[in-house]
Amino acid sequence: ASFVSQTEEDPRPGRLPFTDVREKDWFYSAVAQVYEKGWMTGTSENTFAPRSKTSRGMIVTVLHKLEGNPEAEGSYFADVPLNCYYTRAVSWAAEQGIISGYGNGQFGPGDKVTTAQAALMLTKALGYFKANELTGDWGTDALTAITKATDLKMFADMKAPASNEGLTRDNVANMVFNTITKAVTVEYNANFDIYF
pLDDT, tens digit, for every residue of 93-121? Predict the structure, then answer.
């Protein structure tokens, strides 16, 4: 992934247009950064809806924007129409191995993204989990993803919900902000079975 280190640690852009995000809010810096960079937008011209749940389609769209909206083709899931705001992002994420859906031809773009799902998507986008660390058992893989995300400080400065709970938009903004300011991208060398 190329999106890490594209930003400063604590941005203070001009006044945000959102009436529901104040400078004293714990998530202000994260929302300011993701909004200023265009990675997340408001739910209207003047609301960010920080406590609203984030869908799986939304978080994949954020990851796609972090990568610079690369081209993607194909339809990988029966429940992802060809003309939705998240269609190209879902195709890109599937091509990159960041997502694989539920295993039944469905991605569930409107389903709430859980803490563990978001952690897995973000860590895979950084280049992790290419050395067969994942087992295919969701319970085990969810714990692996949460552990790696914790090691990478993705949950810094926030109280992360339980691994199976839906993430709110303030938490997603914070995880993305932490990913771009604290986490490290890696490449995997299969010949030597190492990350570098």
Answer: 999 999 999 989 999 999 999 999 999 99
Q: Give dist(CA 158, CA 156) in Å, integer.
A: 6
Q: Which helix (H) or strand (E) holds 181?
A: helix 169-182
Tens digits of residue pLDDT in 28-37? 999 999 999 9
Helix (H) or strand (E) holding 174: helix 169-182
DSSP string, 113-134: PBHHHHHHHHHHHTT-S-SS--
The identity of residue 33, as a single letter, is: Q
State pTM to two decimals. Answer: 0.86
Backbone angles phi, psi at 69, to 5 degrees: 55, 55
Quote the tokens at residue 179: 């990913």
Beta bridge partners of residue 166, listed in sequence order: 114
Of the chain, the end-to-end C-alpha distance in Å amounts to: 13
Distance between CA atoms of 33 and 37, rounded to whole angstroms? 6
Q: Are 31 and 21 in contact (CB under 8 A)?
A: yes
d(CA 187, CA 196): 5
